[in-house]
Amino acid sequence: MAKRSSLFIRIVEGKNLPAKDVTGSSDPYCIVKVDHEPIIRTATVWKTLCPFWGEEYQVHLLPTFHSVAFYVMDEDALSRDDVIGKVCLTRDTLATHPKGFSGWAHLTEVDPDEEVQGEIHLRLEVVSGTRACRLRCSVLEARDLAPKDRNGASDPFVRVRYNGQMQETSIVKKSRYPRWNETFEFELEEGAAEVLCVEAWDWDLVSRNDFLGKVVFNVQRLRAAQQEEGWFRLQPDQSKSRREEGNLGSLQLEVRLRDEMVLPSGCYQPLVQLLCREVKMGTQSPGQLILLIEETTSTECRQDVATTLLKLFLGQGLAKDFLDLLFQLELGRTSEANTLFRSNSLASKSMESFLKVAGMRYLHDVLGPIIDRVFEEKKYVELDPSKVEVKDVGCSGLHRPQTKAEVLEQSAQTLRAHLGALLSSLSRSDRACPAVVRATFRQLFRRVRERFPSAQDENVPFIAVTSFLCLRFISPAIMAPKLFHLRERHADARTSRTLLLLAKAVQNVGNMDTPASRAKEAWMEPLQPTVRQGVAQLKDFITKLVDIQEKEELDLQRAQSLQAPPMKEGPLFIHRTKGKGPLMSSSFKKLHFSLTTEALSFAKTPSSKCVNELNQWLSALRKVSINNTGLLGSYHPGVFRGDKWSCCHQRDKTDLGCNKTRSRVTLQEWNDPLDHDLEAQLIYRHLLGVEATLREKHRQRGAGPEAGPVLTGPGAAPEDPLAQLLQVLQDLREAHRSNPAGSPPLEPSRILELQT
Predict the structure, then answer these.
(1) d(Cα 688, Cα 725) in Å, to the nearest integer?
(2) Among 279, 419, 425, 475, which residue has the least CB neighbours within 10 Å?
(3) Which GO terms describe its biological process (predicted)?
(4) Statement: 2-110+249-257 belongs to CATH 2.60.40.150
(5) Cβ atoms 35, 117 nearer than 8 A
C-alpha cells in the first residue's frame, strides 16, 4: 500500500502588476516551486501588467512535501529577471480544503530571510557531569542549501546560540552541501533559557552575511530525551514583524491537492473485472453500470471521471469497446441528428481525453508546420470589416497606406493558404493516424449511420467524426497551441487573431459548411470556396480513414510495438568549456535528443520538432527511471576535481552522495505511462462518493428496502452487476480500513476563496 500525492495547478491570470521596464510595462511569467525545487515555468506574456496564461498542470510528488510557491517574474533580455512577488501555499492549508484554492491572491514581497531551503544534520545530547549537566551540539553536515552567491553556491557556516552564548563553525567555501563535524558544549543552568537555536549563514567578505535558515529546539524536551539525532528542515526567520502587503498586484490560481492511498493490484481486480465485463457486454448488460456512472457523475467532475475511465480501459485494451458503448448510449437517447455529441456528456469528454492520449503525436505531425508558419509570418489578418485597423497593417508600396478593401483581400488570401495547407496535410494523413484512433472513428461512423440511415442524413456520420476531430481536437489546438504543446510560448495579439479566424474556418469545414454556420458570421464569406473544397477533401479523408481494414491495423500495431514510443524528444544545448583560467571560452552545441522507456539517444538533426524545457526533460527522465531497482538514493551534484568533490569537499571519491535524489516529482503529460492501480483507486474513490445514490438505484430495482451489501459468493445473483458493485466497494473499504495508514476520509466538499 502506497500513498500517492498530486497537485492540480491552474495558473489563470495576473492583474495590476507593477511596471518593471522603462516602458512602463512588464514581461511577466510564473515559476512554480515545490519545496524550492522549480517544476513549472509558464510562457512569458509580453508588455502587459495584466497577463493571461490559462495554463494547467498535474504534478505527481512525494506526500511529504511542505509547500508550493508561485513566483511572478519579469523577463529581461539583457539582465537578470526581476522578481515581482509570490504566493505561497503550505501543504497543511491545501489538505484542509479538498476542493483547494480558487480565486485571487495578493502577491507578497519576496523576503530573502524567508527564502530558505535544505536540511541540516545535527546530534544533540544532554551529558551529566559531576557538577552540572552540559548540552552538547554536534553540527555534522547540511544539504541542498539555498544558493546565495553568483556562482550558484554559498559559503556556509553555522551559529549555535544558547542562553546568550554563541559559537560558530568554520566556513566551507563554495558549497551547498557542506560538512563540518564540529561539536559545541553549553552548560545547562537552572532557570536559563529553554531554547537552543541553530542558524545557518552564508559568509560574505564585503556585504552582510545572508541568512540560510534555522532550527529551534526545546531544551526541556532534550533533557527528557537525553539524545536526538537526525536531519532537520531549515526554517525561515519569522521573528521580524510581518510587513504589510505592497502594491504588487494579484494572481488568480486554482490549486487542488489529492492524496490517494493505493492498495496492491490484487485488491482492485474485482472492480476492474466487473467494469471490463460490463464494457464487453455493451448494451446487453442487465446492470448498465457505465450508464449508472454517467447518471451519477456531476458536471464539474465529469472530465476527471471520463479521463480516469478511459485510462483504466486503455490499460485493459478495451478503450475502443468503452467508447463504442458510450456512443451507443448517447445515440439511444438522441432523436435529433443536429444535437448529436454537442453536449458535454461522458461520451464527449471521454473522446476528448482519448484523442489527447492516443492522437497527440499525430496532431503535431499534421498541424505543427502550419502553426509554426503562422507564428513566424506574424501577418496582420482580419476578415471582419468592423475590426480592421488600417494603421496596424503598414504600407503596400512607396509609402501608400493600404485601403480597407486591400487589407480584407490580403487577409482572405493568407487564411485560404493556411486552411488549404492544413486540409491538404490532413487529407494525406489517413495511414499516419494511429490504428486505435482509426478503429474508434470507424466504429463511431458505423453506429451513427445505423442510427440515422435516411438519405437526408447522409452527412451525419461524417459530422459525428468531425465533431471530435475538428471541433474538439484540431480547432482547440489551433486557438491555444501552447496548451497542446505545439508551441512553447503564447501567441501575441496579432497571431492570436489569425489563429482564431483559422479555427473558425476549420469549424465551418467540420460542420460540413451548413447554412447555419455560414449565416452566423457572414464576413467569413471570402473563405467559402476553400471551405467547400475542404468539405469534399474532409469527406474523402474520413471515407479512407474508416475504410482501412482491421487486419491492416493489427499489422501496423505490431510494427509500432517493436519500437518504444518516445517519452520526450527535442533539441538540447550541450555546454562545452574550452581552456582554463580567465581567458577560458565556452560554447554551446545543439543536439536533438530522444528519450524512450528503453534508451536515450541523440542525433545532429531532428526527425520532428518539439521544443521541451529543462523541467519537462527532468520529469520524463524520472518517469522512465521509476522502476529502476538500482536507482541511487543520493548523488554528488558536483564533480571530483583534484582530490575532493566540488560540492561537499569530501576527499573519498567513492563516498555516498551528499544530496538526496528527487526522483518522485513529475509532470503529468499526455504520453505518460499508465498507472493501473492509481486509476482503479480513483474510480473507487468516485464510486464511494456516489454510493448512496447507487444504493437508492439498487433499492428501486427491487433489492429490498434496506439495500444492504449483496455478497458475490454462491448466493449472489450474477445477473445483478449493481449488487456486485456495491459488494466490491464494501470490500475495498474494508481493505483500506485494515491498513494502519488507512484511506483519507471523505470530507464534505469545501472550497476556500481567495479574494482581493
Answers:
(1) 11
(2) 425
(3) intracellular signal transduction
(4) yes
(5) yes
